[in-house]
């Protein structure tokens, strides 16, 4: 039984881009794309985004409530 060679695969990201955060209504989110480079071509596998205001674990935003009293 002959073994098949394992394909060479590399993961790459594109440069981060500043985008609009629709939750906090500010230009504080950044987005990056994640790509897999293989011998058969390039595939975009995911996109990641993070907002400096909304996703800050040290100081989360307060819960917004509407008082309909």
Description:
- With 69 residues, the chain is mainly beta.
- The chain has a domain of 42 residues.
- The protein is built from no helices and 4 strands.
- Strands 1, 2, 3 and 4 form a 4-stranded antiparallel sheet that branches.
- Strand 3 and strand 4 form a beta hairpin.
- The N and C termini lie far apart (76 Å).
Keywords:
69 residues; mainly beta; four-stranded antiparallel beta sheet; elongated
Number of strands: 4
Q: How would a crystallographer describe the biggest sheet?
A: 4 strands, antiparallel
Which descriptor suits the 3D outline?
elongated
Please indicate the percent range of residues in DSSP E strands (runs of 2 or more): over 45%
Gyration radius (Cα, Å) is 20 Å
Distance between the termini: 76 Å
Specify the structural class: mainly beta
Overall mean pLDDT: 81
Secondary-structure element sequence? Answer: EEEE
Estimated helix fraction: under 10%
Topology:
Elements: E1 10-13, E2 17-21, E3 26-38, E4 41-51
Antiparallel strand pairs: 1-3, 2-3, 3-4
How would you briefly describe this protein structure?
0% of the residues lie in helices and 48% in strands. With 69 residues, the protein is an all-beta fold. Strands 1, 2, 3 and 4 form a four-stranded antiparallel beta sheet that branches.
